[in-house]
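Practice problem: predict the structure.
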Amino acid sequence: MQVIGENELIRKILGWTGSPLPSVFRDLELIDDKNEILTDRPVASQILSQVRQRDDRNNTGQDISAFFEEPPYGWDPRVIRLVLATLFLEWHNKTWSSMVEYTNH
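Answer:
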């Protein structure tokens, strides 16, 4: 089994164009069989919910990571950063897609 570092995983998702990704993305239920990003699965949905609840002052990646590293979660900060990067990509793609649709009408 090939071990890929956290920064390499984040680079892979941020530069992702639909090609196969390491299994950790499926293990965390971030990507489905059709290579769609899933935001309604346990880890991603909880992080996304926390992001939406916070105001701008307390909504940095560091703030979110610190929250989920503490009990009752106790999540690994590498997992949190990977999920945040995946959610960022999803947000970027949806924003860009809606901008393109808007300018084409």
